[in-house]
Amino acid sequence: MEARTRRRVRDPAATRETILDAACNLLAKDGLEGVSLSAVAHLASVNRGTAYQHFETREKLIEATIEWVSDKMFRAVFGDPATLGERRVEEVDVSALTDRLSEFAMENPEIGRVWLQQVLASPDPSQDAFWREYCGSLRRFASTSLAVPGIDAEVMSVINLAGVFFWPVFARAHAADEGERSELTRRYTHEILRLSMYGTMSAKAFPDVAERLSKDFAKD
Amino acid sequence: MEARTRRRVRDPAATRETILDAACNLLAKDGLEGVSLSAVAHLASVNRGTAYQHFETREKLIEATIEWVSDKMFRAVFGDPATLGERRVEEVDVSALTDRLSEFAMENPEIGRVWLQQVLASPDPSQDAFWREYCGSLRRFASTSLAVPGIDAEVMSVINLAGVFFWPVFARAHAADEGERSELTRRYTHEILRLSMYGTMSAKAFPDVAERLSKDFAKD
DNA sequence: TCACTGATCGACAATGTTGCTGGTCAATTG
DNA sequence: CAATTGACCAGCAACATTGTCGATCAGTGA
Fold it and tell me: How much of chain B exceeds pLDDT 70, in percent?
């Protein structure tokens, strides 16, 4: 009859990681609603009590999960935070960065959206490393001659990130297999680059809008 | 002592509306997580049993709420569906449409995001009237000479809608009063128009990206 | 007027979740 | 080696939520 469930070997750091990883997967699968301590602990094969030992409350767990996601994302998109300082703005390969971000978003659905939501709602988004880096590099880029003048880096960050994190919702729902999925990823990166280069409206066809833009501009 | 709670006068249609309206408000306040039948019924001052009479299950209620939101949004952005057919593509005022959409998104936070999420995840987004109209008009616009060539209407719809529905998360968290909020709305509409007209990257500074774009293009 | 439909309500069972507590046991440290 | 720490676990209490049922009672139509 035996069969007592084996007691987990004592390794707090690893346990914490296990729990966060489980929370992350659950987040990607069912969204925020699906992240209950019961479900997370079960998926991580950890006792609920143990989970509470590591994270005081559900809120704290979610908060920690978001940070964990942010870090994962940072590495996937910008590489190792340690070696970051050395690179130059001019050297940043916009096109490759977009590729990596789209890739990550597609592989980790849901969590990017949840992360963005939390970060934007927080009193100071730049507390978050990924946001700081993303928005910051966009701002630096905007100040170079490589960029069109008049870019609002904050708004552009929101637009870019919102788009890249929402597209997988559509893509994953409409792609039957891996192949179609990467095709849809390609479609997205193509379009975002095309948009960045050429916009959507033929400038000479819209003198009124152009005028409105320059007027808004004067107000700033 | 008396004080029996008055029984609601019999008016199923109005009751249904009341419930949906409550659900909608709750959605805007607390997101999907906040929409429990208990909370909705309470807010609507309706017995929970009554709510179940109108909506078989929580899922059904949420589904109905999303449709209701879609309809509200449609009217706010495109006007009355009945008088829609008459207008021409060329007559559509892009700039005014953007204004109305941003306005709506700011006034009704959360629900637009949830709506977009549901619609994109559904097997056939064009079942939804708002999506059909938005994406369709973008497609029609793309085929005119007013537009830059090569636009992917579906991707652009996602980018635009994701952006406009996410911006309020940032804006509402960082605006102290009504005035700051409308200023932030203005910032958004300005930037999205600017982006549509001029993009972000100086085309001549990025011959490699331009080449990649034309290559991708050839593959299609 | 009177039966009938169905909108509304109060209560109940089943289930799930949160957070807490007290107990066990492995590792560390003096 | 003994004592202490704290990681881990099982179970409890409080509460929320879902979905269901049977009992009313207001309109409606015969």
Answer: 92
Please give the CATH architecture assigned to the domain spanning A10-55: Orthogonal Bundle (1.10)
B154: which chain A residues are within 8 Å (Cβ-Cβ)? 170
pLDDT < 70 regions, chain B: 1-5, 85-91, 217-220
Considering the entire predicted model, what is its pTM? 0.91
CATH number assigned to the domain covering B1-55:
1.10.10.60
Q: Six-digit token pair at A113?
A: 């959206």
Distance between the alpha carbon (CA) of B13 and the C1' atom of D27, Å: 14
Q: Is the pLDDT of residue A41 over 50?
A: yes
Interface residues 128-157 of B with strand C (CB < 7 Å) = none
Percentage, residues of chain B above pLDDT 90: 75
Chain C: nucleotides below 7 Å from protein CB are: 6-11, 16-22, 25-27
How far, in Å, is the CA of B10 from the C1' of nucleotide C7? Answer: 6
- The C-alpha torsion from A167 through A170 and A173 to A174, rounded to 10°, is -110
Q: Let me know: does B153 contact B142? Beta carbons within 8 Å.
A: yes
